[in-house]
Amino acid sequence: MVYGRQSILVTGGAGFLGSHLCDRLIADGAHVLCVDNFFTGSPRNIEHFNGHAQFELIRHDVTFPLYVEVGQIYNLACPASPIYYQHDPVQTTKTSVHGAINMLGLAKRTNARIFQASTSEVYGDPTVHPQVEGYWGNVNPIGTRSCYDEGKRCAETLFFDYHRQHDLEIKVARIFNTYGPRMHPQDGRVVSNFIMQALRSEPLTIYGDGQQTRSFCYVDDLIEGFVRFMATERDFTGPLNLGNPSEFSMIELAEMILEITNSRSELVREPLPQDDPKQRQPDISLAQSRLDGWNPRTPLREGLGKTIEYFEGLLKEGVID
User: Fold this and answer.
1) What is the dihedral angle through the alpha carbons of 283, 287, 288, 292, rounded to the nearest 10 degrees?
2) Does the N-terminal peptide bond of residue 271 adopt cis geometry, omega within 30 degrees of 0?
3) Are strands 267-270 and 72-75 parallel, antiparallel or unpaired?
4) CB 219, CB 179: distance < 8 Å
5) Is the pLDDT of residue 1 over 70?
6) Residue 151 Cα to chain centre, angstroms
7) Residues 134-168: tens digit of each pLDDT
8) What is the pTM of this model?
9) Residues 39-46, mean pLDDT to the nearest whole number
10) Which of 74, 148, 162, 218 is catalytic?
């Protein structure tokens, strides 16, 4: 893609997904303005951009207005793992809702096209499988996960109301489970949990019967979807599922990680957390038809190998114990 002289703003740019997006945009020739408050993002994820002419960093919380001049906005700012978003649930909701309002206001003022990183969590514990974009979801509005689920649902509402009321150019993507290097090793999600437990020869924690399923998308495949979606015609707003439809049970994932790491860790059982979805699989037929042949290309075993190698490096360097 060819970018003009205007900057591209990436909120949450020092996070897992945000830093990979910055990599891709800069490789494509863009000037990137990275915004992060470093609650879950890490300076380590973007340290390779120190002194880079195409990269600028602003430490900022998106719940407060931001006054910059940009041509495109990718709004990725929000903690995405239960450990972090349940730590301060009120702030999590504010990040999704106030952050959306502030970024939409910025887009309106600068006439920028804006991308919202929504989530498969808007579908809740789905009664439709696989999940299609027209499904309205089965979400508990008062549960312990609601700060994230309902915050993202409200952000989608705001995006579409700004589009209808102000003719704003929006792109809303619903992201399904993504993994890869730069995941936080203690983020509490299943891929990082299993990898760290296997590398430390600790028991792998299986919640419930282990037959609940997830669909795991490697980060490079997801970022490719972001960039292609942002380049589509004005009237194609989404919402758009982005993820890998290959479905795996938690036991299958655990066994694959044990095999790759050569770990002798055992599997232990714990009760299923409240509102934890039993199934999660995207229907990506819309993305496949509208994103110029986009399709996730990285097999789970290959992607896990790269992620395990990254975590092994953190352990060797003493970055984590």
Assistant:
1) -170
2) no
3) unpaired
4) yes
5) no
6) 14
7) 999 999 999 999 898 999 999 999 999 999 999 99
8) 0.94
9) 94
10) 148
